[in-house]
Amino acid sequence: MNLFTKPKSDEDKLIEGCIAGKREMQRYLYDLYSKKMMVVCLRYAPTSFEAEDIMQEGFVKVFSNLQNFKRDCPLEFWIRRIMVNTALKLLRQKSLLTVSHESDEAVNIYSDKVNLSGYSMDELLGMIQSLAPRYRMVFNLYAIEGYNHKEIGEMLGISEGTSKSQYSRARVILQSMLSRQDKIYTEHVISK
């Protein structure tokens, strides 16, 4: 044994097994990441059916491109990027992602702090899904995926200012939804 040979990690073994076409390794990879990736897809898709389509298409791309994975980042991060890019591509094809080009001047962001602790993940996801597709895309890419507005502009074919404006508007809409929900809840509790 060469003392300078680094032992293979479990992730390396999983990747190599999938590349070799071992069905049990491919199934394991899918089972390992499918729930997390479904959450990613649900944030972009207007319905759970479309999210499932995005995820399935994304995993097809994962398995067909796994040999090109350079292993310069965690596998989960690489898979997540494929899911996001697949979502954007499929939504563009279905004309659900028609981004309007707004002025480069961003709308002032509503600055009140919002308490999210009283909401379930399903409630928050539902609110995000109810945004117009262009707002939902920018919100997800910036607030959740961590892209900057310049990168988002390049991905969506819009200006950096338009990305900022659409993110700002998405935040205002979501904060308005949260305020309405809080008001409904408060009125319900008081009326009891």
Summarize the structure in words:
The termini are far apart. The protein is built from eight helices and no strands. The protein is about 65% helix and about 0% strand. Residues about 95-115 have low confidence and may be disordered. It has two domains: about 10-95, Rna Polymerase Sigma Factor, Chain: A, CATH 1.10.1740; about 120-190, Winged helix-like DNA-binding domain superfamily/Winged helix DNA-binding domain (Arc Repressor Mutant, subunit A). The protein is globular. It has about 190 residues and is mainly alpha-helical.
What's the SSE blueprint?
Elements: H1 10-19, H2 23-44, H3 48-65, H4 75-93, H5 121-129, H6 133-144, H7 149-156, H8 160-190
Helix pairs in contact: 1-2, 2-3, 2-4, 3-4, 6-8, 7-8
